[in-house]
Amino acid sequence: MSSSAVISTRGSRRWQGGHPWIFRSDLITPSDAPAGAVAVRDPQGRPLGTALWSPASEIALRFVSRDTLGRLDVDWWRTQIGAAVARRDGLLDGETTACRLVHGEGDGLPSLVVDRFDRWLVVQLLSAGLEAHRAEIVDALRALPGIDGILARNDASVRAREGLARVVEPLVGAVPETIEVREHGVRYLAAPHTGQKTGAFLDQREARRLVGGIARGAALDLFSYHGSFALHLAARAATVTAVDVSAAALERVAENAARNARTNITAVEADVFDFLRAEERRGARYETIVLDPPAFAKNRASIAGALRGYKDLNLRAMRLLAPGGCLYTASCSYHVRRHDFLAMLEAAAADSGRRIVLRALTGQPLDHPEVLTIPETGYLKGALLEAGD
Questions:
Q1: 341-361: pLDDT as tens digits
Q2: Is 3 left (phi over 0), alpha (psi -120 to 50) or beta?
Q3: Which of 70, 94, 121, 148 is least surrounded by CB atoms within 10 angstroms?
Q4: Which tens digits make up the pLDDT trace of 167-225?
Q5: Helical spans, DSSP H, in the chain
Q6: Do 325 and 224 reside in the same domain of the chain?
Q7: Which CATH number covers residue 41?
Q8: Has residue 195 been placed in a domain?
Q9: Together in a domain, 33 and 78
Q10: Please, are residues 165 and 56 in contact by the beta-carbon 8 Å criterion?
Q11: How would you classify residue 27: left for phi > 0, otherwise alpha for psi between -120 and 50, otherwise beta?
Q12: What is the DSSP letter of 34?
C-alpha cells in the first residue's frame, strides 16, 4: 500500500458498526494510489484498517481488515479464502457437487464471488479494488484441491460502474460449456459461460430439497428456468408443469428431465401472469406450487411496483391451491425486505378468501451467509404456505 485514505467520522462509525462500505461522500482525503489495497485512517489520523480502494466507484472503499496490513499478498488471500471454504465443510459430499465457496461481504471478502461446480470454479471480481488483486486471488484458488479450471464471469453490470470491462474469460485451464451438478438425488446441467448468475441458482438448493420432500399430486413450477425445482418436485408429485417465458430455458428443462429419467414433467412456454389468470378461469387446482420469480425490485424506486407484482402472483397461486396444498414462494429482490415480503403475503392471503397457514420461513443456505450488520448480504427470503381449507 502506497498511500492511505482518510474518511469522515460518519464513515468511521459505519465501519465500527460492522459495515465494510465507505461511500465517496465520506472520503475526506482520497488515496492517490491506483486501485487496490490501502490503509484507512479517521479524521484524527487513527488507523482503522485496510480496505480495497476503487477510484471511480461510488463505493470508494471496502474494508477487509481492522489491521493496517503491509499488503494483501497471496498468503493473505489463501488464508481468507481457506477460511471461507472451511465454513462449507461437509456441503460438497458427493451427493451435492456445487456450492458457493465465497459470498463476498458475507465472508469478509467484499465484491468477490466464487462458485464451485464439481471440479471447476466460476469467479466474479466485482470491484476495481478487488480486480487489482486478480493474480493473487487466482493463485489462491488454484491451490484448492481438485480444481481443473477457473472461469471469470466478469460480465455483471456493476463492473461498468467500477470502470471495468465486462467479459467472460478463462483464468485457469478450460471450463466446459455445461457441467453436470448433483444435488440431493437430482442431476442437472449448469451453464457457467452463459447461464444466469454463475451458471445456476445455487442459493435455492436447500429450498428445492425442502419442497421436493413434501411435493404431491399435481405440481406447478412457475418461472421454472432450467427446471431445478421441477426436478425435485417430480420425485414425489404425480405430474409437474414447468412454466417459463423462455423457450430456450424450457429446452434445458426437457434435457434435465431426460437426464433424471423423469417423464412426468411438462414444459409450458408462457408468461406466468397470463398463465395463472388462465388457470384460475378454468378452475384448475394444484397440490404443490413453487413460485420463484426473478427480482422485480432493482432499486428503491421500484419497490411499490414490485410488491404489487408479487402480490398478484401470490394471490393467484393461493387461489389455485387444492385444500391442504402447499405453496413455496420466494423473493430474491434485496430491496424487498423480509417485513415487506411477509406483509405482501398477508395481504394476498386476505384477498384470496383462503385460510393460508405459514409452515416455514426460509432464507439463504449456509454457503450464502447473511451478516446482520450488512443487509446487502441478505436478499433471498421464502415461505412455505399451506391452504388450510
A1: 999 999 999 999 999 999 999
A2: beta
A3: 94
A4: 999 999 999 999 999 999 999 999 999 998 999 999 999 999 999 999 999 999 999 99
A5: 9-16, 74-87, 128-131, 134-142, 158-161, 205-214, 228-234, 247-259, 272-281, 303-320, 338-352
A6: yes
A7: 2.30.130.10
A8: no
A9: no
A10: no
A11: beta
A12: P
333 φ, ψ to 5°? -80, 115
Task: Scan for cell 435455492, then name that residue.
Answer: 204
Same-domain check for residues 352 and 212: yes
Q: What is the C-alpha separation between 16 and 32, in angstroms, rounded? A: 24
Residues annotated as part of the active site? 332
- Quick: pLDDT tens for 222-236: 999 999 999 999 999
Residue with cell 421454472: 224
The residue behind cell 420461513 is 361
Tell me, yes or no, whether 219 and 304 share the same domain. Answer: yes
Q: Is residue 110 part of a domain?
A: yes
pTM of the model: 0.94
Per-residue pLDDT tens digits for 132-179? 999 999 999 999 999 999 999 999 999 999 999 999 999 999 999 999
- Alpha-carbon distance 121 to 150, whole Å? 5
Q: Are residues 270 and 341 in the same domain?
A: yes
Q: What is the 3-state secondary structure (H, E, C) of 204-261?
A: HHHHHHHHHHHCCCEEEEECCCCCHHHHHHHCCCCEEEEEECCHHHHHHHHHHHHHCC
Within 10 angstroms of residue 195's Cβ, the number of other Cβ atoms is: 21
